[in-house]
Amino acid sequence: MAFKTLDDLTDIAGKRTLVRVDLNVPMDGDKVTDTTRIERVLPTIRELSDKGAKVILLAHFGRPKGERVASMSLAPVAPAVSSLLGKNVSFADDCIGDAAAAAIGALSNGDVLLLENTRYHKGEEKNDPEFAKALAANGDIYINDAFSAAHRAHGSTEGLARLLPAYAGRTMQAELEALGSALGKPVRPVLAVVGGAKVSSKIDLLENLVSRVDMLVIGGGMANTFLAAKGVDVGKSLCEHDLAGTANKIMAAAETANCEIVLPVDAVVATEFKAGAQNETVALDAIPSDGMILDVGAASIETVKSKIDTARTLVWNGPLGAFEIAPFDKATVAAAKHAADNTKAGKLNSVAGGGDTVAALNHAGAADSFSYVSTAGGAFLEWLEGKELPGVKALEN
Ligand code: AMP
Questions:
Q1: In the predicted model, is pLDDT for residue 335 greater than 80?
Q2: Is the pTM higher than 0.85?
């Protein structure tokens, strides 16, 4: 491992430990409506608190752009963390300066304190060295447990890591280990399943994957652009015809890299984009001129399942069809369940994440059986694109 973890920390009793966490949770008024992100950081907080550290949480909330926007205060999040942790979490209404110093000064060993939104200061997003110094003044040790914010070089994710002894928290560690096992040093063959609406948002991702994986299944709306580039008449389907050249380039790169590209061989088409719309499964040369492809067909599902059976490692991003509206969720659900079964049987290491993928796997009831599901959006996608994440880089020894 190129970075230090909590295992490398000894004798932290009484140490002021600045922990960057992701508490950017969905709220309805003062109530947290989904506690997933809070739950993910509890192991690190508990472990540090149990070892007697003074645990000081740093987080952003929303996009206040350097201003104190009251609706983006972290104050209502502190009680939510407290109730899930089963331990009091105090709150300071600034992350630097006198308010923070006073609250930290009042901490006893094992206490937990949440500091106000780091993005209330312009220096956070600018990664201003002075702001990072002001943060560092309040700590002896820095721990980053927010993989989902690691694609941003901000004061609390990057700058601070360069000023204090820096460690990965348990959630960051789990994420990096899972991602490493999928694309770093994976057990081959490696299969990537990429779906979703558009090629345009995933060009870098596709280009990176064809050079790293053995098989690439392309589904969802983006498959239409590839099919059209190969001369298939996709009717009224969502399709980026102007990206035919890009699709051809990706297919050529795949051939050079010995990566097998697997496109749909049949399609579920409808004339309306709505739940329960009348639909039929057709071969690719029989797509009606007024029809829209909303899912891959039964024969394509069988192909995807057979590729999953061949693979030892799976990386998944994006649904295979318009999974939010039944019955166009069929392929996504079938493939996700199959991957989940193979994972449970110990035959597959399955890692998924990014955007709608978590919702799609939850919808399929498959998320819990995957080896790892990342809740990080942008950071997971940038990692799939092969980019270096500044927050991770700064942790490396
Ligand atoms: P993305 O955010 O790029 O992963 O795209 C996810 C979205 O793609 C979901 O909202 C799906 O409904 C949509 N999608 C997937 N397949 C299709 C399709 N064949 N036609 C239209 N939209 C689709």
A1: yes
A2: yes
What is the Å distance from ligand 1's center to 196 Cα? Answer: 4
Residues with CB under 6 A from ligand 1: 195-198, 201, 220-221, 238, 293-294, 318-319, 321-324, 355-356
- Average pLDDT over all residues of the chain: 96
Question: Quick one: which atom of ligand 1 is closest to the CA of 237?
Answer: 20
Supply the DSSP string of 269-281, one letter for each residue: EESS-STT--EEE
Domains of the chain with CATH codes = 6-170 (3.40.50.1260), 186-384 (3.40.50.1260)
Catalytic residues: 37, 198, 355, 378
Q: Which of 282, 325, 328, when mutated, tests ligand 1's pocket best, judged by the most ligand atoms within 8 Å of its CB? A: 328
Write the pLDDT tens digit of every residue in 9-67.
989 999 999 999 999 999 999 999 999 899 999 999 999 999 999 999 999 999 999 99
